[in-house]
Design goal:
The chain is an all-alpha fold and 158 residues long. It is built from six helices and no strands. It is 80% helix and 0% strand.
Amino acid sequence: MSSISTGRVILGGIVAGIVSDVLGYLVDGVWLAPRWAEGLKALGHANFAANQWIGFNLLGIAGGIVAIWVYAAIRPRFGPGVGTAIKAGAAVWFVGTLLPNAAFMYLAGLFSRHLTLYTTIGAFFEVVIGTIIGAMLYKEAAGATEANLAAVTQKAGA
């Protein structure tokens, strides 16, 4: 089995994170901004500050790197392509967004059900689309060929 190309994971992950961050800005910073403002006001907080947005974006890039690492790890089993990228992105979204949002936003009652639902669904598309785009940049480490990958994938399916 071939090794994971760390450089390609980082490159693809940074791209995935940036795409996810841009989409996240559109969802949370534009579309859901009034709901976030209401929810934060109810908690006695002001709107998000610039340094918080920077922190969110850095976390988005870290999440993108994790998503492409997962893509690279499952690629030999599922094969290269969009379907595998969707699986990787969905797995990262499930652990990194759905579970924390369900726990801290919904079950703890910190934010409204609607805000929790909308931002969680929005994040699914942010993470999955970012992962698909980042995965387009991923290639296996030197010595691994698509033919080798296909053989491994076929053997795993047998």
